[in-house]
Amino acid sequence: MKTTTRVAVIGGGVVGCSVLYHLTKLGWSDVMLIERSELTSGSTWHAAGGFHTLNGDTNMAALQGYTIKLYKELEEITGMSCGLHHVGGVTLADNKERLDMLKAERAKHRFMGLETEIVSPEEIKKIAPVTNVGGIIGGLYDPLDGHLDPSGTTHAYAKAARMGGATIETHCKVIETNQRPDGSWDVVTDKGTIHAEHIVNAGGLWAREVGAMAGIYFPLHPMEHQYIVTDEVPMIAEIIDGGGEHPHVMDPAGESYLRQEGRGLCIGFYEQPCRPWAVDGTPWDFGHELLPDDFDKIEESIEFAYKRFPALAEAGVKSVIHGPFTFAPDGNPLVGPVPGVRNYWSACAVMAGFSQGGGVGLMLAQWMVEGECERDTAAMDVARYGNWITPGYTRPKVVENYQKRFSIAYPNEELPAARPFRTTPMYDIFDGLGAVWGHYYGMEIPNYFAAEGEERYEIPSFRRSNAFEATAREVKTVREAVGINEIHNFGKYRVKGAGARAWLDRIMAGRVPKQGRLSLTPMLSPKGRLIGDFTISCLGEEDFQLTASYGAQAYHMRWFLQNLDEGVTIENVSDQVNGFQIAGPRAKDVLAAVTRDAVDLKFLDVRRMTIGKVDCVVQRVSYTGDLGYEIYCDLPSQRSLWDTLWGEGQTHGMKPFGMRAMMSLRLDKFFGSWLSEFSPDYTAAETGLDRFISFEKPVDFIGRSAAEAERDAGAARKLCAFEVEAEDADVVAYEPIWLDSAVVGFCTSGGYSHHAQKSIALGFVPVERATDGLQVEIEILGQKQAARLITEPLFDTDGARMRG
What family is reported (predicted)? Predict the structure, then answer.
C-alpha cells in the first residue's frame, strides 16, 4: 500500500470515484482512494440508478446535465459499459401550481441549452402509455432522463481514474485522521498510515463518522428509502418486443418515480411517514445489507400508484430494495473546502449520485487544482451552513426535505421544520407587531408585518401573494415617513491591526476609505469573478468594519483566513453586533431627536455616536435608496436602542418594514442582491460593480489582472433593468429574455416596485443591444411579456435624497 499521496479520497462510492477520476483528468495523478470494503459499498450498490436534469438551482441543473453527458465519455475512455438507457422522462402536473413550476423550469432550460418541453395529457399518454392521465393537466418532458447500472458506472469511474495514475485501496478501513502542523494529514488505517497533503471526505453513509475523526460536524442524515421491482408487465414486454423502451415518469402527486426495469417496472417512493436511519451513527459493519421490507409506510403511496399506473396492480412484486442514503437539510450536496480546517474537502450528502456525481467531482477537482470553480457552487458549497448548525436542527430539516422531495417549490415558501431556532433579542417584539417570519442562515427574519385581522402566513405562490398589500404599506412608510428594520441580515466583521489597511487593499478591489468614511467594493477571485459585495467602514486607522451578506459568513471567513496577512486579525461579529436601519424622509429627524451628537453626516460618513443610553456606530447609507442610516450596537444593548428609536419614531410616523419591502425598495434604484445579481457566475464589469474598482491604487489586489483584461476588452453582456408588462406574476430569477425571436439573455431577479407601481426585472443582455428603450420579451410562467429596458431610476433620480 502507498504511504504518501497528494490526495486521499475516503469512500469508494460513485462520488468518491468521480472525484478521483476528475482529479486525474485535471492533471493530479498522485491521488488515491481508500475504501473500507468494496467499491459501491454503502448507498451506491442499491441505488435505483436513475438520472435527470431537473433541479431548482440552475447551476445544479447544469452540473446534472454535465454528469449525464459524461457517461458516454467514460464508456469511450474505459471500454466499460455504464448500462446507459437514455429513455427520456416526463414529470406530471395535476394542478395549475405544479404546471406553473414546470413552466418556470422550462423557461430556465431555454438559456441553459437543455431541450425540455411542456407536453399535454394527450402527448403524455403517447410518451408514457403506462400512465393514467386522468386529472393530469400537463407535464415536462426531458429527453436526457434515463437510468444506468450503478455498479458498472462506479467501476468505469474507477478504471478511468486508474488509467490517469490514481491508486485505489479497498478493504482498508480509516481509523483516524490527524493533522500535522504544516496542514497535511496522517490517515491512519488498519493497513498502516498514509501521509496525505489533502483529504476528501466522500464517506457517504459514514461521512459523519469520518468527519468526526477530524472534529468536523457535517450536517447530513441518512434516510430510509424503498423501491419495488415488479415481475413482467405485459405492456412493457410489448414495448420491448417492438424495439422500444418506456420512459421515466415522475408523479409528484403520488410522491413516486417510475421506470422500466427489464420486462417489468421499478417504482420508488418519497413517502410522508418516512424514517431517518442510524440516528446515533452509521454502524461500521453495515455495507451490502438491506433494511427489512416495510410496506406499511408506503401503503398509501402504493395505493395511489396503482391508480396512476394501473399496470402495476397486475404485476407481482419481484423484489423490494429498502436501503439508506444521505441528505443535507436542503437536499443539495455538501461540497468544497471545509471552513476553518486546512486541506480538508467535502464531497458528502450527494443523495442523487448518478445525477450529480459527475458534476460534484468536476467542481471539487477544479476547486482543488485550479483554486476556483468554473461556475457558482453556492447551492452545494459546504460553507452554506455555519458552525451554528446541529444534529438537532439537521434531522428534522432532512425529514422535511425528504417529504418535500416531489412537492412544488415556490419562490416565496418558508418551510417550518426546526423553526424558530436562532433569533435575535427583537424576536418577541417583532412577533407582537405582526411579523410574518422567514429565515436565512438559520436566523428568523421578518418578511413583512401583517395588520390586525390579516393572516400571519404568506401563502406560497408563483404569483403575487397575500403579502402584496402589507408590503405596499411598508414601502409607502419608507418613502413618505420613516421605516425601521433590523440589520441582522448583514454579515459583520472587524478587521484590526497594523497591517489591516494594506490587507484590505489587497483582498478588496475597491478603495479603502479614510477614517470616518465608508466605501463600497467588490471582492474578486483570482479569475476576476465576484465573490463578495462589501461595505468597508473605517472606524480607526487600524480598525475597520466590513459588512456583506449574512448568509455568506462561512464562505467569506474561509476566504479571509486563506488569504490573511501577518499583523492582521479578523473576527466574525455577525451575531455579536446588531442594530437597526432607519430610512425615509423623516429618518434624520428621528436621529436628531435621540442623540446629543451632531447628525450632520454626509453620504458614506461613519461616526461613533451615543443614541439614548447606547454607544453606536452610525453610517449614512441605505439599501432602500432613500435617506437612511445604519445604526450598529452590541447585542445586549439592542433592546434599549429599539426603545429609544421606536419611542421617538412614533411622532414621525415610524413603522417596521421587512425583507419583502426591502427587496421592492431596492428595485427603485436597480440595486443588485448577493447571489442574484452578484455571484461567482458574474464579473464586476458585467454587473456594473467595476465602477467601484480602484484601478488607480498601486496595489496588486486579488483579481486585478483579470479585471484589467476585461476592462480593456469589454464585457460581452451587461446587467440592465427592465419595466415589464406583467399580469399577476413578476420575475423571480432565470426567466429568459427574448429578442428577435431568440433567447439573448436571462433575468437575475425582479419583483414589483410598490413605489412606482411597476413590475421590474434585472437581467443580462448583450452589451451591443443594451440601449435605453430596447423592447424585449421576458418569459414568465410560460407567457412572453413585453418589457422595455430602462436606465433612469424609479425614485430619487438625481440621488438628492439619498446623498443630499
Answer: Belongs to the GcvT family.
Q: Can you tell me the distance from the alpha carbon of 473 to that of 469, in angstroms, rounded to the nearest whole number?
A: 6
Is 141:59 a contact under the CB 8 Å cutoff? no
Dmax (CA) of the chain? 88
DSSP line for 371-428: SS-SS--TTTBGGGS-TT--HHHHHHHHHHHHHTTTS---TT----TT-S-B--TTHH
Q: Which residue has the cell 479571509?
A: 560
Spell out the alpha helix ranges (H) of 465-552.
Answer: 468-480, 500-507
Residue 43 has pLDDT above 90, yes or no: no
**Spatial contact of 553 and 560, defined as CB atoms under 8 Å apart:** no
CA 396 to chain centre: 19
* Count of residues in the chain: 804
Phi, psi for residue 533 in degrees, rounded to 5: -135, 100
What residues contact residue 469 under an 8 Å CB cut-off, 6+ apart?
Answer: none
> In sequence order, what are the residues at sequence separation of 6 or more whose Cβ sits closer than 8 angstroms to the Cβ of residue 801?
585, 626, 627
**Residue of 540, 535, 616 whose CA lies nearest to 582:** 616
d(CA 117, CA 141): 5
CB distance 558 to 516 below 8 Å? no
Task: Give the number of other Cβ atoms within 10 Å of residue 514's Cβ.
Answer: 11
208, 214, 215, 221: CA torsion to nearest 10: -10
d(CA 582, CA 346): 41
Query: Which pTM value belongs to this model?
Result: 0.95
User: Which pLDDT value is given to residue 47?
Assistant: 77
Q: How far apart are CA 473 and CA 661, in angstroms?
A: 9
Helix (H, G, I), strand (E, B) or coil at 132: coil
pLDDT tens-digit map of 221-259:
999 999 999 999 999 999 999 999 999 999 999 999 999
Contacts of 532 (CB under 8 A, 6+ apart): 522, 523, 548, 552, 556, 559
H or E element at residue 486 = strand 482-486
The rounded distance, in Å, linking the Cα atoms of 668 and 625 is: 8
Chain centroid, CA 76 distance in Å: 33
pLDDT bracket for residue 165 (50, 70, 90) = very high
DSSP-based three-state secondary structure for 350 = coil
Q: Kindly tell me the burial class for residue 681, based on how many C-beta atoms sit within 10 Å of its own C-beta (0-12, 13-18, 19 or more).
A: middle
